[in-house]
């Protein structure tokens, strides 16, 4: 591999990273909306059943013929996304509470 090839690969990774960041931002916009709904309807912010459903659904990507990412690696990534999603919901709901409008 030459330096030019390495630079090209890095540029590809940078492009993918930008797409991931964009998609995560869109996901978190929706997650905050869900948090607002849940708070208004006195529902818990965390839904472990839903998280398990997502993990089961995304596990299919690890059984594809050309999959490099292991099931465990994907699980770790999504568990972190769930944790940060919950944190975003909590922070937004807290910032919108009457006590914080002072």
Characterization of the model:
This protein has one domain: Chorismate mutase (Chorismate Mutase Domain, subunit A), CATH 1.20.59. The chain is 73% helix and 0% strand. The protein has helices at residues 3-40, 48-58, 71-95.
List the helices and strands and how they pair.
Layout lengths: L2 H38 L7 H11 L12 H25 L7
Briefly say what this structure is:
The protein is mainly alpha-helical and 102 residues long. 73% of the residues lie in helices and 0% in strands. The chain starts with a helix and ends in a 7-residue tail after the last helix.
CATH class categorisation: Mainly Alpha
The helix content, as a percent range, equals over 70%
What would you report as the Rg, rounded to the nearest angstrom?
A: 18 Å
The description of the largest β-sheet is: none
Number of helices: 3
Overall number of structural domains:
1
Task: Describe the structure using short key phrases.
102 residues, mainly alpha, flat, Chorismate Mutase Domain, subunit A, single chain
